[in-house]
Structure formats: structure tokens, C-alpha cells
TrEMBL record:
Recorded GO CC terms: membrane
Residue intervals of the Protein kinase domain: 117-403
Organism: Castanea mollissima (Chinese chestnut)
Name under which the protein is recorded: non-specific serine/threonine protein kinase
Catalytic activity: L-threonyl-[protein] + ATP = O-phospho-L-threonyl-[protein] + ADP + H(+); L-seryl-[protein] + ATP = O-phospho-L-seryl-[protein] + ADP + H(+)
Bilayer topology term: Single-pass type I membrane protein
Length: 406
């Protein structure tokens, strides 16, 4: 603001808080500069109120529209989530090759936890693992057996690697098929096809005596499975733990060799290996205790004990046997063979008694298999040929004491 009067001109600053009327200053002129814009200072009270209402309506409209949009997004997300839980099925993991020649599925730990319902139903356990029943949801609820390795120190890692390497390369009707594995952090699991009739141990020692024809069929199928592992695999495999608990039975009671956790792989130019004692008491070959190289003949020995158990329908060692001479099955079987009293081995088994020629042949094969000297034991190929009748079974020599293998 500029003031002119009395021949002078000076400026005044706003606000004019100390202004007053002065009648003596007639003729004084005041010049006020006003900004020309769209400010509300030029609006009437009615117009200002109307503009404020319009602004409020605009803000409320924007907020309401945003709220409705967010609500729609929330409802859409809830619908999609509900639809997914109701109709979505887990997608099968893509199979891939772990190593050349091994077509196995890779499972996540979460998938196997869900498949086993939190590892609820235990089927069995071993030194390094427990086995649980599971169901694969994405394969028409296919039942599987999930072997969960635990307490994984160095030996456990060796077991996992050996089992995946061994079974992943095998394909035979008398072997349990490995379907996949999980190697996630500290979790190591193996997924097998499920054998509905359990183990040979439960079948043989669980109650009523199985039929003779079933027992001899299981013996032959087990021999064929071992023959495959020893001579028909691309890499020769020593199982190292043949026993009734590791022979499983499928829907038709056919024998399937399982549990390659103690398997010892041999290179193609290698026929024997030195390792620590493995296997199960009563089925372990004498060379394990003599610091001798271990060959496929350790499996032949274990099969011989298993064959005697199938013939007699009893365990290899029984404290409550009728007599002290019958406690160790291998010793008793040889005594019965030598004394021509094989009927004692199959007492009250009418089917076996009616087939004594086969009983005698199988006992002779078993005695050959349990020879203390590994070089005297036949190969599994020859065992199969003798059992099938394509070659004759010669008279076996007397084996040495079997007590060292207990």
C-alpha cells in the first residue's frame, strides 16, 4: 500500500493494525495493490459454502469408490482361495534323472509329510530308518512306503547314497521298485511301491503255517532276485542283509527283495571288497568275522539260511526248540540230512511230506550255500538252475560249525 499526501509518498505494510482516521489529512490518497486471481477472497459466503460442499462430496466419492474397489478385490481373492482348496490338486513333481540310467521322482519334504499324514502309520524300522505308509494324492491315491532316514551321521549318509544308487538302476519283478526320493536339507527319504502283504517274516512266523507251494515259490523268486543283483545289473550289487524281514510280498504273494541300505556296490572290474561287518546275526557269513574280502558269496550264505527257514517254517535260531541239538537250524538240518531223517524238518507238514524229493533237494542246496569256505558255495545263477531242475544237485560236504556266525 502506498500513501501520498502533503507532497510526500511513503509505503505502508500490512496489516494496518495501528491505522486511525485523521481529519487534518484531507486530500491524502492511498493506493492499494490487489492480486487478481481465483482465490476465495472474491467469493461471497454462499458461493464459498457451495464450493466447500463440492469439495467434500468429491473427497467422499473418491473414498467410497476406493472402499468398494478394495472390497471387490477382497471378495475375489477369497473366492479364488476357496476354489483352489476345493478343486485344486497338487501337481506331480517333474521326474528327472539323478544319474544316467536312474529315472526317479524328486519329492519335497512337505509333499511326503502330507502323503504320510504327518508320518503317522509306521510299517517298520531299522538301524537308520523308519518306514511309513503313504498315499500319493496326484496319482489316483497310489499307496507307497516312505523310508525316512534319521540320526544321519556319516554312516547314514552312506546308506542313503548306496540305496539310491543301487535301487535306482535296478528293474526286476522280484525287487521292490524305488519310485523316488527326497534330499532336502537334513531330510532324506526314499519312496517305494507299497507291498500289501508285508514281510516274509510276518508271513512265515506270524501264525498259521503257509502252504508248501507258496514257500517254495517264494524261495525261487528270492533266488532269481539275487541272481539279477549279482550278475544281470550293469553294476554288480551285494545286498549284505538277506533275511525274512527284507523279503516283501506283493498282492499275489510274490517275493520282492527290499532294503538296499546295506548294499555294497562293486565296480565292473571288481569281484570282492573289504568292509565292516554288516547284516543281521544268524544270517551273516563266516568271512565277515575273519577279516576276509567280502564277495557276492555272503548273499549266497544268507540265502541258504533263509531257504532252510522256508523249508522248516521256523527261525534260524530258537532258544525254545524241542532239543538243544535243534536250537541252531543249520546244524540241525545238516544232522537230519546226514542221518536221513529229513521228515523231522517238516514234521506235521503234510504237503511237504508228500513232496520229500523236493524237500531233500532244497536242503542239499541250502547246505551248499552255507559252506564255510566261500569258494565252495554256488553262485546264485547255479542255485536258480538247481532249484529249477536244469542241473543236478550233487552231494554237499559237511559244513563247519555255524555257531561263529551267530
Amino acid at each position: 500500500m502506498a500513501v501520498f499526501g502533503g507532497g510526500q509518498c511513503w509505503k505502508k505494510k500490512f496489516p494496518l493494525s495501528n491505522g486511525f482516521r485523521d481529519a487534518t489529512n484531507a486530500g491524502t490518497k492511498v493506493l492499494i495493490k490487489i492480486r487478481k486471481d481465483n482465490s476465495t477472497s472474491n467469493l461471497s459466503d454462499a458461493e464459498l459454502k457451495k464450493k466447500n460442499h463440492s469439495t467434500v462430496r468429491l473427497i467422499l466419492s473418491v473414498l467410497l469408490s476406493s472402499s468398494m474397489f478394495l472390497n471387490l478385490l477382497f471378495l475375489l481373492a477369497a473366492f479364488l482361495l476357496a476354489f483352489r482348496f476345493k478343486y485344486w490338486k497338487p501337481k506331480a513333481p517333474n521326474p528327472y534323472l539323478v544319474m544316467p540310467g536312474m529315472n526317479l521322482r524328486s519329492f519335497t519334504y512337505e509333499e511326503l509329510t502330507e502323503a504320510t499324514n504327518g508320518f503317522r502309520e509306521e510299517l517298520g524300522r531299522g538301524a537308520f530308518a523308519k518306514v511309513y505308509k503313504g498315499v500319493l494324492q496326484y496319482e489316483d491315491r497310489k499307496p507307497v512306503a516312505v523310508k525316512r532316514l534319521y540320526n544321519m551321521e556319516r554312516e547314514g549318509d552312506m546308506e542313503f547314497n548306496a540305496e539310491v544308487s543301487a535301487i535306482g538302476r535296478t528293474n526286476h519283478r522280484n525287487l521292490v521298485q524305488l519310485l523316488g526320493f527326497c534330499n532336502e536339507g537334513e531330510h532324506r527319504l526314499l519312496v517305494y511301491e507299497f507291498m500289501s502283504n508285508g514281510s516274509l517274516a510276518s508271513f512265515l512266523f506270524g501264525g498259521s503255517r503257509p502252504y508248501w507251494y507258496q514257500r517254495i515259490q517264494i524261495a525261487l523268486e528270492t533266488a532269481r532276485g539275487l541272481f539279477y543283483l549279482h550278475e544281470e545289473c550293469s553294476t554288480q550289487i551285494i545286498h549284505c542283509d538277506i533275511k525274512p524281514q527284507n523279503i516283501l510280498l506283493d498282492d499275489s504273494f510274490s517275493a520282492r527283495i527290499s532294503d538296499f541300505g546295506l548294499a555294497k556296490l562293486l565296480k565292473t572290474d571288481q569281484t570282492r571288497t573289504t568292509t565292516r561287518i554288516r547284516g543281521t546275526k544268524g544270517y551273516v557269513a563266516p568271512e565277515w568275522f575273519k577279516n576276509m574280502p567280502v564277495t557276492i558269496k555272503v548273499d549266497v550264505y544268507s540265502f541258504g539260511i533263509l531257504l532252510l527257514e522256508l523249508i522248516c517254517c521256523r527261525k534260524s535260531f530258537e532258544v525254545k526248540a524241542k532239543g538243544e541239538d535243534q536250537m541252531i537250524l543249520a546244524d540241525w538240518a545238516y544232522d537230519c540230512y546226514k542221518d536221513k531223517k529229513l521228515d523231522l524238518l517238516v514234521e506235521n507238514d503234510e504237503e511237504a511230506i508228500d513232496d520229500m524229493k523236493r524237500v531233500e533237494k532244497y536242503v542239499m542246496i541250502a547246505i551248499w550255500c552255507i559252506q564255510e569256505d566261500p569258494s565252495l558255495r554256488p553262485t546264485m545263477k547255479k542255485v536258480v538252475q538247481m532249484m529249477e531242475g536244469s542241473i543236478e544237485v550233487s552231494v554237499p560236504p559237511g559244513p563247519s560249525s555255524f555257531i561263529s556266525s551267530m
